[in-house]
Amino acid sequence: MYAISNSRPTGNDREAVQRLAPQPRTILETGLADNFLGDLVCKHLHDAGVLDMPRLVERLALTGAVVEEVLTFLRQDHRVEVLGQAGGQGLRYGLTERGRNAARDALSRSGYIGAAPFPVNAYRSLLKVQTIHHGRISARDMQASFGSMVLAQNMLDQLGVALNSGRAIMIYGPAGTGKTYVSSRLIRLFSESIWVPYAIAINDAVIEIYDPQVHRRLDVGDPQNSLMLNEGIDRRLLCCERPIVITGGELTMEQLDIRYDPFTRQYQAPLQLKASNGLFVIDDMGRQRMAPAELLNRWIVPMEEKRDFLNLGGGRHCELPFDLILVFSTNLNPLELADEAFLRRIGYKLQFGYLKPEEYERIWVQETERLNIQYDPQLLRYVLDELYGAENMPLVPCHPRDLLSMALDRQRYVGASGPLSTLELEWAWHSYFVQLDFL
Questions:
Q1: Is 303 part of a structural domain of the chain?
Q2: What is the pLDDT, as a whole number, of residue 223?
Q3: Are residues 156 and 295 in the same domain?
Q4: Is residue 269 part of a domain?
Q5: Does residue 172 lie within any of the structural domains?
Q6: How far is residue 79's CA from residue 188's CA, in Å, rounded to a whole number?
Q7: Hey, is 241 helix, strand or coil?
């Protein structure tokens, strides 16, 4: 999942990435071996049959100069041949018999067919340059992002300080108190853009990083049409908003490590790697299929040392910076999930609780405006006194939205219109909450 923001690349951000990752002009400057790039080009030609230079440049996300150098290498090795022009559109390239055999051999080792990957050493530097732990969030920023929400000022301040700290955060409290809603909107505070590689290369393993379900691309207006373009930021990097990944009870331990698919012969990045330079929210903590202690123990080293060790299989491991804000959200008692020694490692624990009547009223008014309903203070008084009061029910932030929406549902069903009545709110109340009269 991702949250929509108004991120745009700033001058300083772009200059830092430009110095770190300029357009490569030669194979050597890509940080990849000529045989590696040669195999990748052969796989693309095997996949497409015949490609001209513009298509190869687009597929590989490299400049024309680099692609030309790779093609020259492959032609000298008799793996690629020139098939002539097509309608005056330039030379086309195809595989020789030797090239087809080489492509099949390359595909048996790695099924990856995509943009040229970014070398892992350069990726480590990129993550550090784009760190989310810049500590620049102010009280004014918090108010601008959450001012329309009914959230106590001390809670806003706690959240802001926690985000600036670079430490993990645990948000806990009863269900319906806004934990998920607030967590999913924290990314709005980080408006800077970042550059995300299509994939990274760890020796011979290619791991896809860019995920359109996670990373929201931004149009930076770079001229990408010139085949010989040697300026600007490396084409293997995409300008995106800072990502946010939210996972809940469906989370498994396998999703937190590099996974290899033997059928496609491709590596899949773990969720926290896709969330790099952004936020990773583990919602419904304690509802996962693994024991809470097992899941929490997975984060001890990354939280303390700011680096993560990923398993590539076959006894191979890779160390990468752990640059993200880790948020745990739960409606369970944190002491039931972990002991105090572990909870101290998390750093910030923020409790979301029930509302005061005046806070509930503010949310009720907001919802009536959103639903285009006339606000009736007498109707609200009835709900608070006769419904909540009679059953001693706590005031929960999500209730006004749900009760008013359900009352409108019934009004539409019976063909009524006009202001909501106490009868309709009482009907919504009894439909919303579990009734235990039969016990």
A1: yes
A2: 43
A3: yes
A4: yes
A5: yes
A6: 50
A7: strand
- The reported pLDDT for the residue numbered 253 is 93
| Chain centroid to CA 321 | 16
148 — pLDDT class (breaks 50, 70, 90): confident
- Whether residues 154 and 257 share a domain: the answer is yes
pLDDT digits (tens, 9 = 90+) for 361-379: 999 999 999 999 999 999 9
- The enclosing domain of 306 has a CATH number of 3.40.50.300
Strands 325-330 and 307-313, by their bridges, are unpaired
CA dihedral sign, ordered 75, 79, 80, 81? positive
| Strand bridging mode 118-119 / 199-202 | parallel
Two tokens, residue 303: 């939280």
Total of domains in the chain: 3
The CATH number assigned to the domain holding 405 equals 1.10.8
For the stretch 59-94, pLDDT in tens is 999 999 999 999 999 999 999 999 877 665 678 999
Considering the domain architecture, whether residues 372 and 394 belong to the same structural domain is answered as: yes
**Token pair for 410:** 């019934």
Token pair for 291? 């024991």
Exposure string for 345-366, b = 16+ CB within 10 A, e = fewer: ebebbbebeebeeeebbebbeb
Diameter of the chain measured on Cα atoms: 86
Reported as a single tens digit per residue, the pLDDT across 286-313 is 888 888 889 988 999 999 999 999 988 8
